[in-house]
Specification:
It contains 11 helices and 12 strands. By secondary structure, the chain is α/β, with parallel strands linked by helices. Strands 1-4-5-8-9-10-11-12 form an 8-stranded parallel barrel, surrounded by 9 helices. Strands 2-3 form a two-stranded antiparallel ribbon. Strands 6-7 form a two-stranded antiparallel ribbon. It is globular and about 70 Å long. It binds ligand PBG.
Length: 336
């Protein structure tokens, strides 16, 4: 800190006395350019299906998602992150529907790119929406098998990019998947397809509403050891240095952007990563964070607009280049 003063010659409140000087001395700002719209799609006919734990963020039909992409363009939101709610009848242990080139993700991607070609489409690479046990990988003897899973994820990423996805976002936390996906994309001529790695993703209680939204329900099934959580592949909430190692590996493997997830409870991780690597770094304000804010606001316990905007600004202040959030359309509208 080069600037230090002493009271009474220095009075920090001088710079807070009026809106104009507060604006003039503000250190960071939030604009629609900072937002990635987290959106859940379904393959039914209804335009919107409400998700009780995520009021205001319903599942959208493919048709509604295409309309939403146009709305994103009009609002100046650069990109949409698409997550699928798959018909339960299509789920089985290996998540084979993930490799269907005419499945929901690919269909939605095509419809959105057609509707709004200038909006970036980013898709999750992971098997949990497609497996009946709700885990992100393939099971071998009840354990999530790393290398076998990577082979499927690589195919999944290729199919998504062939359908028009601009960016793939491996969210599964298998070791080595970024490098495998990069190699496969390059081998098929997709040098320009981007990878945003869920590099530091924690085994978190804050994903609960998302699992309602995509219908992955309770994790488990008899075949899975440690069925109730994802702690054998997602990170332990107590760890910070490990996040730096994860990011270093993903960047070395070819990640263009890295992400920290969840958001608000992990701002220290976000700040460390941004300071250490200087890479494009994103925060995911996850479903549980959305649900908490909406629930408190609905009860009149928080001023909704101020509280949400404060969280979004906090990500920027901590060093995020952008925020993946279910609040994106709402926030972009407020930001004008
Ligand atoms: C799964 C995935 C999850 C989210 C995005 N991709 C959940 C999980 O890891 O269990 C969470 C999104 C949210 O909570 O908003 N690959």
């Amino acid at each position: 800190m080069s600037f230090t003063g002493r009271y009474p010659t220095t009075r920090p409140r001088r710079l807070r006395q009026a809106d104009w000087v507060r604006r003039l001395t503000r250190e960071c700002a939030l604009t629609p350019n900072d937002l990635i719209w987290a959106m859940v799609v379904h393959d039914g006919a209804e335009d919107e299906i409400a998700v009780p734990s995520m009021p205001g963020a319903p599942r959208l039909s493919v048709r509604a998602a295409a309309q939403a992409a146009k709305r994103a363009a009009a609002l100046g939101i650069p990109a949409i992150a698409v997550f699928p709610h798959i018909d339960p009848a299509k789920k089985e242990p290996a998540g084979k529907e993930a490799l269907n080139p005419n499945g929901l993700v690919c269909t939605a991607t095509r419809a959105m790119k057609d509707a709004a070609p200038d909006v970036g489409i980013m898709v999750d690479v992971a098997l949990d929406p497609f497996t009946d046990h709700g885990h992100d990988g393939l099971l071998r003897d009840g354990v999530i098998a790393n290398d076998e899973t990577i082979e499927v994820l690589t195919q999944q990423a290729l199919i998504q990019v062939k359908a028009g996805a601009d960016m793939v976002a491996p969210s599964d936390m298998m070791d080595g998947r970024v490098g495998a996906i990069r190699t496969a994309l390059d081998a098929e001529g997709f040098q320009d397809a981007m990878i945003m790695s869920y590099a530091a993703k924690y085994a978190s209680a804050f994903y609960g509403p998302y699992r309602d939204a995509i219908g992955s329900g309770k994790l488990g099934g008899g075949a899975v050891k440690n069925p109730g959580d994802k702690r054998t592949y997602q990170m332990d909430a107590a760890n910070s240095d490990e996040a730096l190692r994860e990011v270093a590996m993903d960047i070395a493997e070819g990640a263009d952007m890295v992400m920290v997830k969840p958001g608000l409870a992990y701002l220290d991780i976000l700040a460390r990563i941004k300071q250490s690597f200087g890479a494009p770094t994103y925060a995911f304000q996850v479903s549980g964070e959305y649900a908490m804010l909406k629930a408190a606001a609905a009860n009149g316990w928080l001023d909704e607009e101020r509280a949400i905007m404060e969280t979004l600004l906090a990500f920027k202040r901590a060093g995020a280049d952008g925020i993946i959030t279910y609040f994106a359309p709402w926030a972009a509208e407020k930001l004008g």
